[in-house]
Amino acid sequence: MQVSQDREEAAAPPERTSPLGLEQYIAGRTLVSGDGPAWKDLFVQVYSRRDRQEAFLVPAVAEPLIVWVMSGEANVEERELGGDWISNIVSVGDFFLTRSPTPYEMRWRSTGTAPFQVMHLYLSVPLFERVAKEVLGGDGPPALLDVSGGKDEQLSHLLALIHQELAAEGKGSQLFVQGLAQSLTVHLIRNYVSEDRQDNRQTALPGFKLRRAIAYLEEHLADPFNLAQLAVAVGMSEFHFSRLFKKATGLSPSRYLIRQRVAKAQQLLQETDTSIIEIGLSVGYSSPSHFAQVFRRETGLAPSHYRRG
C-alpha cells in the first residue's frame, strides 16, 4: 500500500486552473494499494473529494468497478458520451457498479457538510472469471448490471473490511484480503448478474495496462508520438493495443496525447507566467504556429486569448 501526501497541505489551489490542473487539487488524502501479493486481485483507491467536480471521462476497462461512498452526500450525475445527464443523490453506504464497454462521463456536487469520501475498487478479471465459472458454470463470464446509487448492507460490510486492511499500513493479511476479494466477487455474481446480456469484455483493455499507457504518455508529453514504443511499454502489439485503447477511452493513442498536451498547456497558461513559446515547447511543439493551431482547434481559442480569458 502507498499513501500519498495530503495535497491540500502540499499545494493551495490557484484562483483559476484548467481541467487537468483541477485534477491535482481534487483529492485530499489518497490511499492506493501497492503491488504486493495481498492485493493481486484488487486495485483500490480511497479519495477525499472536494465539494464540486466538473465532468470528467471514466474510461472503459475490463475489470468490474465499484465506487462506494464512505462519507458525506452528493448529487452525482452520469451520462454516456453526448447523452443526457442522469442524476442520483447518494450518501454513506451507497455504491456504483459498472463494467461498461464504453467510456462515460461523471460529475458531482456535494450537498452535505461532511467531507465527500469515496472508495474505488477494481476486481481482477482472472478472479471474476474463475469465481463466475465456479458459481454459475458455463463457458464464459456473465455480464453485470450497471448500478448507480444502490444500497447493499452486505456489500458495504465487505468493502469496510477491505478498507480496514488497506489502511493497515503494511499489516494487512494476505489471506484475509484474498478471502475478502473472493467473497466480494461471489456476492456480485449472485446478486448483480444481468440475464439479458452476454459478457463481451474478453477483448477489453485491462485497467492496469490502461493506467500504464496513460502514465507513459504523461511522462513523454514533449516527445514525438511513437506508437511502437508505447505498445512495447504496455506489452501488446501495436494493432491490438491501439484498437483496445480507443475502445476504452474513445480516442486513439495519438489523439489522447494531443488532448493531454493541450490540457497541460491550459494549466500552464492559467497558473504561470511562462511565455507561450516556452509552453508550446514544453508540451512537444517546436513551432509556435503549429502549437497555436492545435490549441485553437481543441479549445476554440488562441493561447493568448485563453490566458487573458
Structural class call reads: alpha+beta
Percent helix: 40-55%
The proportion of strand residues reads 15-25%
Shape call: globular
Summarize this structure as a short list of keywords or feature phrases.
309 residues, alpha+beta, four-stranded antiparallel sheet, 12 helices
Could you provide a short overview of the structure?
The protein has 309 residues and is α+β, with helices and mostly antiparallel strands. Helices cover 43% and strands 23% of the residues. It has helices spanning 7-10, 19-26, 125-136, 153-166, 174-191, 207-219, 227-234, 238-249, 253-271, 276-282, 288-299, 303-308; strands at residues 2-3, 31-32, 42-49, 52-58, 65-71, 74-80, 86-90, 94-98, 104-110, 116-123, 142-144, 147-151, 193-198.
How is the topology of this model organized?
Layout: E1 2-3, H1 7-10, H2 19-26, E2 31-32, E3 42-49, E4 52-58, E5 65-71, E6 74-80, E7 86-90, E8 94-98, E9 104-110, E10 116-123, H3 125-136, E11 142-144, E12 147-151, H4 153-166, H5 174-191, E13 193-198, H6 207-219, H7 227-234, H8 238-249, H9 253-271, H10 276-282, H11 288-299, H12 303-308
Helix pairs in contact: 3-5, 4-5, 6-7, 9-11
What can you tell me about this protein's structure?
The chain is an alpha+beta fold. Helices cover 43% and strands 23% of the residues. It contains 12 helices and 13 strands. A 7-stranded antiparallel sheet has the order 1-2-3-10-5-8-12. A hairpin with a 5-residue loop joins β6 and β7. α3 crosses α5 and α6 crosses α7. It is globular and about 60 Å long. The termini are far apart.
